[in-house]
Structure formats: C-alpha cells, structure tokens
Amino acid sequence: MRLAILGGGGFRVPLVHGALLAGGEVTELVLHDVDAGRLAAIERVLAEQAGGAANAPRVRTTTDLAAAVSDVDFVFSAIRVGGLRGRRLDEQVAHAEGLLGQETAGAGGIAYGLRTVPVAVALARLIGELAPRAWVINFTNPAGMVTEAMAAHLGARVIGICDSPAGLCRRVARALGIDAAAAKFDYAGLNHLGWLRSVRVGGEDLLPRLLADTAACESFEEGRLFGADWLRTLGAVPNEYLHYYYFAREAAGSESRGAFLLEHQRGFYAEPSLASWERTRLEREATYMAETREGERDDLEGGGYEKVALALMRALAHGERTTLILNVRNGSALPGVPGDAIVEVPCAVDAGGARPLATAPLADHALGLVTTVKAVERATIEAATTGSRAAALRAFALHPLVGSVPVARRLLDAYVAAHPELAYLA
User: Fold this and answer.
1) How much is the average pLDDT of 25-48?
2) Residues 6+ apart with CB under 8 A from 238
3) Distance CA 378, CA 338 (A)
C-alpha cells in the first residue's frame, strides 16, 4: 500500500512511521509539506528510526502536492495552515479580549478553521481527482469542522480521527479494573465535545459504580480534572476539552500552547535526530493541557493518534472488522443532530467504510451545547467556502465561549489583520 502524509514535516510523523515499522503493510510512505526544511528534518529522524528494519516502508519526500497524492491508497491529512506561529497569534488575539485561545474551542478554534477550511477543501478536490479510490484519514484540527468541509467533496471516503475518546475509555476501564477490549463504551458528541455515558460489560453498566467511588473516580485524568462531584452531577464523564466550557472563566486566557510549542520545537528542527525528537516528544506530552491539571498525563506513549489511524487503515484495507470512535456523517445514529453533520460516535469499520452505530439521545444540556457548537462550525465553513464576512461574524458571536457581538466584531477584525490567510474576509 502507498500512504501519503500531508503535513509530512510535522513533529508527530515519526509516531506514525514507528507504528508502520511493526506492520509492513505500507510499502511506500510519501511525505508532503510546504516547508522543505521541516521535511528534511523528519526524513532524517525516520531514517534513524527505521534502522535497517526489514518492514520499513520506502520514504519519499516532496513539496509537490499533486505528486504526493497521485494514485495513493491512503492519505493522512495533518496540515497546520500558518504553522505554530499562526497558533500563537490565535491565542494572543483571544487573550487580548480575555478569552480562550485554544485551537479547537472558542475564538482560537474559529480562527484556525477560517484559515484551514479553504486549504482542506482544495486538498479534498485534488485527492478526488488524482486518487479517487483513496481513503482520507483527517488528523487536522479543528477535526470535526475540517472533516465536514472535506466530506462535501469526498463523502464517506474521508474520516476524522482523534485520540481523546479512546484515551478516555482506556483510562476509565483502568479505573474500573476491567479489560477495555471486553467493554462497550457509549460515547457521543462532536470532536472535543463528547461524553462517555455508560461502560457495559455483560449487559451491566459499570459507570455508576465508578462515579459513586470518589477515590476511583479521581484516580484518572478526567476525574481529577472535573472532580468526582461534577461527574456525578452529570452522570457521565466528559471529554477533557469540556473543561473549557464547564470552567470557562477559570480557563480563559490561561493557556499559551502555541507559544510553548513554537519555542519548544525550534531546537529539534535546528538539529534533528531521533534522540532529540524523542526527548522533545516526552517533554511535549508531559505538558499537554498542563494549564488545566496539576499532574502529568497518564499516557505518555505518544497520544495515540497513530494507533487509531493504523487500526482504521487496517480495517479499511483488509476488512478486519473493528469498532472505533470516529468522526463521520451522522445519518440517523445520534438523534437531534442533522444527518449530514459530522459527529464523533462509535463506528463499525470494515472494508466498506465506517458506519456510525445507533446511540441514545444526548441529555438536553449536552444536545443544546452540541447544537450551538455545530451551528458555529457550519457558519465557519460557510465563511471559509464563500468568503462571507457575515458568516464569520456569526460564528464568533454565537460561540458560547465568546458570548458578545461587539467582542466578536473586534476578534474578526484582529484575526484578519493578524493572518494574511484571512485576507478574503477583509
């Protein structure tokens, strides 16, 4: 199989390559990036990482997008429009208004979407033309929004992934003392906006038992992050990103992840090596969402994106049936959400694609939040695909983490001034 990674100079690419070394299914790995220097750095790390492994795929790098995607079997899209400098600017503009600048939630997420969706749509059109049989696995944030924009051109052949739900399920299983593979997890929502509502083993829901035990509940990240009392109040375990909604005042203006990563990765790209990459990766993972928790992450093995992506790729390529929590078109799986909307739910996956499994309706409070954020995502996509400044303003003003029309106007003006990619909204 031939796999192309768009954003191939990105810092996480060695995680995917390392996982590929154990499989052997991918014979050629094509890395594409607009930055030739970053591509060269990652190519050097991959050469060290392969170390003469018999199953190592042949690695080819290119800055020519058409050459990268032509006739490939799979495309992993992991682009970052504007780079980490753009992410830092997103945070700074939001912080100036006393708001959250995070890249998938609130003002920062909207700004990132406005920059990214036009590029993602162009990618989808090109892939549809040059590799119409390819499966596209989208890593690019804001993942739900970007996947929805690409699905307008690729349909069910684009699937969004995130490691947050899988990590949450794994940690809850550990807290319960059960094998995650033997449990059925009821998780539903949008990307970075979902809730784990039950954990069934042999027909019994074990989640109430966990929520009733404060020590067990606060033995894993989300329990410590939200507190056992709040989880009992909800009757569910939220995705970690819901901290930004449930503790909005405490979180606002506190994070500066883009600025940290920009400086943190500078040394690695200046003198790339496998040892330098591994050291930088561990430091990066240990500080992930550090502004919202006292301890380090439980899982420092690399976030898990590569594991979800490769499990999905194997199921699609070989018909190995599995169930994964993915970002796909809803259909009728999640009541109350439009059928063509991208949702994050458990899916049955095989060679025919990923099919969302029917799930119970969201609680009213959750459905209200999902409906509002989905409306914001769709306004952002409208602005990015039509150039509508009114749609962009609507996206900022309607987001629950902005909550002010005058502030929304100032944000839109400031982001357009900060990012040349947003000149289409001037």
Assistant:
1) 96
2) 194, 195, 196, 222, 226, 231, 246
3) 11
